[in-house]
Amino acid sequence: MSKEYPAEDKNHKFKIQDIKLECGIFVKVDWNSKTKCGGCGKEIFWAATKNEKIMPIELIGHCKWNTHFATCPDANKFRNN
Ligand SMILES: [Zn+2]
């Protein structure tokens, strides 16, 4: 079964957007999820792939996004979840 993000409603404002990463995959980003990587401290957002795999993404240029797995020196920590 596919799990959808909750739609915007009266109580919560979700700010979800589909974007394409530089590696070519499409993800849904939650722009409210801005945080810092627990490993390297870089500013990241959380995104979900079509397969509902959650991954951190980072800004790599003007309006260019890519998975933070690609650059994070501590990427192993994410994968061990
Ligand atoms: Zn990192």
Main sheet specs: 5 strands, antiparallel
Estimated share of beta-strand residues: 35-45%
Q: What's the β-strand tally?
A: 5
Series of secondary-structure elements, N-terminal to C-terminal: EEEEEH
Question: Can you tell me the residue ranges where pLDDT is under 50 for at least 5 consecutive residues?
Answer: none
Task: Assign an overall shape.
Answer: globular
Strand order across the largest sheet: 1-2-3-4-5
Give the N-to-C terminal Cα separation: 22 Å
State Rg. Answer: 13 Å
Structural class: mainly beta
- Helix fraction, binned, reads under 10%
Number of domains: 1
User: What's the mean pLDDT score?
Assistant: 85
**What's the helix count?**
1
Bound molecules: zinc ion
Folded structure, characterized:
This protein is mainly beta. It has one domain. Helices cover 6% and strands 43% of the residues. It has one helix spanning 75-79; strands at residues 16-20, 26-36, 43-49, 54-61, 64-67. A five-stranded antiparallel β-sheet has the order 1-2-3-4-5, with no helix packed on it. The chain is globular, with a radius of gyration of 13 Å. The two termini are 22 Å apart. 14% of the residues are buried. The model has no long low-confidence stretch (mean pLDDT 85). The chain binds zinc ion. Zinc ion binds next to loops.
